[in-house]
Give the backbone structure.
Amino acid sequence: MFQVMIGLVVHSQGDPRVGQHIAELLAPGQGRAANVDGSAAGIQPEGHWVNHRRSIRPDGRQAAQGMPGKVGVLGIGEDHASSLQPQPWLRSSPYSERVNRDTPRRVERPDRPRPGTTRMFATAVPGMAALVTADLEQLPGVHLTDAGFDGGSDLVLFDVDRGHRVHLQGLRTIEDLFAETGRTTRSDGDLPPGIASRAWPPDGVEKALSAWSAEVRPLSRTMTYQVIARVLQKRSFPPAELRKALGQVIARDKPRWNLASPAQLEAWITEYQPGRLIAGVRLSDASAPRPDSQKAARPGTLPPTVAAALVGLAGEPGDVLLDPCCGSGTILGEALAAGWPAVQGIDIDPEAVQAARRSVPGAGVLEGDARSVDLPGETVDAIVSNLPFGPEYEAKGDMRIWLTGVLNEMARVTRPGGRVVFLVPSIPNNVMPRDLELRRKEPLRLPGLKTRLWVCDRR
Ligand SMILES: C[S@@+](CC[C@H](N)C(=O)[O-])C[C@H]1O[C@@H](n2cnc3c(N)ncnc32)[C@H](O)[C@@H]1O
């Protein structure tokens, strides 16, 4: 009989439970993890992160979208030698603590463009960089180069091989996509004009505009443009000075272009880590509504990119996905787009039910109470929900009692091995039902609201 050994190299910051946990994920009930020297802990002192969250489900099914039948072992290989060093990325984001731990270290030298690639970056809701990174890693021809937080958004930087930009069109977790013109660092005393001209070098601009004309519209000799600037260390100079400086650099480079607002082309320059800046032209139009959701947006509606990420965390589409507090149905729309065949929504507010039915006609939406769902036990493969907490929506009565009722009901209707993903700022002690095993918890900043993401497996 053959014995097959599969290796996962895991960085656990010394927690000896992690190796066993992964072994259990791989082979429930019979997993065994070992150190490289054969001792039975499964921990190496320093190694790579394995993104097992998206790769393996406890029932043995593979959870990451787009990689059927493969177990992902990420960040291993000589190419990624630099990934062995702990990276300082994202430390600046208060919403990205977990990103450092969960993001596989496929970081390559940021300052050297790969030949034949387009240098790009994407912005995401703060706290989402790890999820965006995981999505990008699934795409062929995409190489992550760096990441950060510019005070308003998470940023993920990457190179895309020739002919592979098309794959980015399916990305639903990013807010905006950019073709990079240039990146630079600044030191004390470095002033906006110097930074702006380094971030707008002729060869980088030519490449970025070629991507822009391919993705957005053909370039013309006279164009309108505007500049957006973000600076982390505002004590040195305000963002307006950097915006003005980049505007002047562009005016010298493209004398027939005119500043305007709104404009045909947006040039961004942003400090994504302290002292590190990147500039680029925006390829996406975030103001355009998605075709399949948001038709009846109400206050408190989730950004579709976040809804898409939550749905992604529910794993590969099974049969039934439920949102028991569906509001206008953003999550339902993203679940259908992700390929869930049966998507169900419930909301206690009849207006929300009407809105969700209008927005997402492909979903089944019923008026009801998340504390007593009209479904038999263990019939749902995944629950994904943005629970009613925040300025617009407050659950009525005692939060602890309300949450206890909703979480117990979520556990009851989900089948063992199913996934329960939700947003709520906090969960009081002893409220999480025993049937739900917490896998992941991290902060997320929605417009006007700091909340938390919770990912649980139904035992
Ligand atoms: C934050 S909103 C959800 C927004 C939704 N994710 C979206 O993007 O449109 C929370 C929703 O929970 C609903 N809700 C409040 N209490 C509920 C309950 N007991 N059962 C079901 N829905 C409830 C509210 O009516 C509201 O529509």
Notes: Residues 1-110, 286-296 have pLDDT under 50 and may be disordered. The first helix runs from residue 17 to 26. The domain at 78-282 is CATH 3.30.2130.30 (VC0802-like). The chain has two domains: 78-282, 304-458.
